[in-house]
Task: structure prediction
Amino acid sequence: MTFLQFNYGVVTSTEVAYFSYIYSMISPEHYQRATGFIRSAMLTGFTFGPTLGAAGLQEERPGVTDPGVTGGQKAESKAGWCSRESLRLAGRQM
Result:
């Protein structure tokens, strides 16, 4: 928990420093437009970062047993651990 709090503090202070630097470089009449560009860039990064990370998790792993498949069978789908088949089988077992 301490590591997470430290990491959050570093990220927050870095964001404050970044915005302070950006706003010191532009004139006050352009603050609103700059804020729009910066926020849209950040939200785009927050969207595509996890999306690309999830896509990287969905690679085929030969020889890996999917815990959602009963009987220790090999997972046939290329979706990885969170495939629809795994979710369907897990739902059926509950």
Observations:
- Residues 23 and 34 are 8 Å apart (CA to CA).
- The chain has a mean pLDDT of 76.
